[in-house]
Please model this.
Amino acid sequence: MIDALIKKIIKLQNPTCVGLDTDFNYLPEDMKSGVSSFAEAADRIFEFNRNIIDSVSDIVPSVKVQIAYYEMYGYQGLKTFARTVKYARKKGLIVIADCKRNDIGSTASCYSKAYLGKTPIGGRQLQAFPADMLTVNGYLGSDGIKPFIDDIKNNGKSIFVLVKTSNPSSGELQNLKLDDGLFIYEKMGRLVEEWGCDTIGDYGYSEVGAVVGATHPEEAARLRLQMPHSFFLIPGYGAQGGSAEMLKVCFDNRGLGGVVNSSRGILCAYKKPEYANMTYYEAARAASLDMRKDLSDAIGKMGR
Amino acid sequence: MIDALIKKIIKLQNPTCVGLDTDFNYLPEDMKSGVSSFAEAADRIFEFNRNIIDSVSDIVPSVKVQIAYYEMYGYQGLKTFARTVKYARKKGLIVIADCKRNDIGSTASCYSKAYLGKTPIGGRQLQAFPADMLTVNGYLGSDGIKPFIDDIKNNGKSIFVLVKTSNPSSGELQNLKLDDGLFIYEKMGRLVEEWGCDTIGDYGYSEVGAVVGATHPEEAARLRLQMPHSFFLIPGYGAQGGSAEMLKVCFDNRGLGGVVNSSRGILCAYKKPEYANMTYYEAARAASLDMRKDLSDAIGKMGR
Model:
């Protein structure tokens, strides 16, 4: 799946994903009006997502659907999560389920079935939330990652493991130094390289990628050198303070190596003065085009 | 909420929780018969859970509901998760949602709303999956934990942070040594003590507990000494190889300090020769009583 993402990035000259972190409060007033239950809120969120997807699917390669924003609307929210994942794939987008799942092996295999595989019931094989890619947390080590790797290989999927996250306090644990001189995030990076080593595709990147925040350019630059086979999912652009100049260190000399997420910057673009007089989905498209230009100016031609 | 759990443990002389990691395949053949959709499977799983809860609610203080086993049945599975959480609380059990959630602050606050708080919609405050306690992963540091702490304080809840997990490869990251001589799991333990320091209850334990596996007694003993204010959620007993003798180091000299989970050992007890000729819920009760005796023999009187 990583090759498919890279091909789309090259074709569209756009290394971004639109983050569908759709808080009900982000919706325009008229869409929120009269809503007082999870089921109604979840329906409106799907409508919002569908219009955003329709508006950007020809200019961006991928979307990232952050499941926390759906869990807070109960199982009805998760129904909208599933509908959003399926609709985005139908429109040709590569869908990253941002779930940061983690557990012991037997439990991790349930998560993997839910997002990357299939669940057997009475002789049938059913798909719960059929995404293309999933974010996971590696704190439990290899046996918590192995079930995902199996589904990657069997079903043509990818994962991104948290390495250096975009939030201000990520360094409290991730930037501690080990007795061999490595930082914890570097050690996690090495584990990621190992986990992906036999899934390397046509562009030299494996199906086991890394989450590396745009907000920490020094660490990102180190990791790009130490993780030559790991594609980066890069959050933190825009609302969180990361810029194209800061994150360009994540890219290799072919202009490849990462996909950059923006959520609020696109979903809530319609609230900004520069996109006044546009619908929310027109504003999302305009903001996506502006983001593409901003990233292209910093990174250069992708796939050169 | 930690005081309520400890009081129940003392009253019932039973420091256990029943792990409702209910794989559809664990159900007896007659309950599985004719099922071929997520909705049907989810309904049968709820029926199974309800009978287990009815059968053990007077002898165990708590249940732990592992959400991965529900996510693999789609949003219908999560409807059963919500129903199970609510039913168990109605029956007086303290409910631990085992979700190991983790993200940056703004996203963590969505997770916290989903499990420990409320979600605002159109002037109403709705509860998605109203648990008493939640497991979380601390890899992102303080700002990913803070939203949970806020809901703990506002709503009388608790969390358990992953410190030393029960799986065989937990040491790959957790047992690396830092340049100051601490192991990573010890450093995480210190963060947990800090995060909980102003939520300490009547028994000296805080609302921010730690997940510490029964399968690693040496690490557990160190952590008990280093984390005097942290209550432990102890997985790994039974099917994973942890014994009462191994995990008794998690308890203090009052016979308090932890709650021990067993999942398959109780849910699937009816498949074992020693519980033959019992229904699955009778076998679950018998296995829970056997587990209580086993733990009591090792730990001694609780609340002495």
Observations:
- Chain B has one domain: 2-296.
- Residues 2-296 of chain B form a domain with the TIM Barrel fold (CATH 3.20.20.70).
- The beta strands of chain B are 16-19, 62-66, 94-101, 119-121, 124-126, 133-136, 158-164, 208-212, 232-234, 258-262.
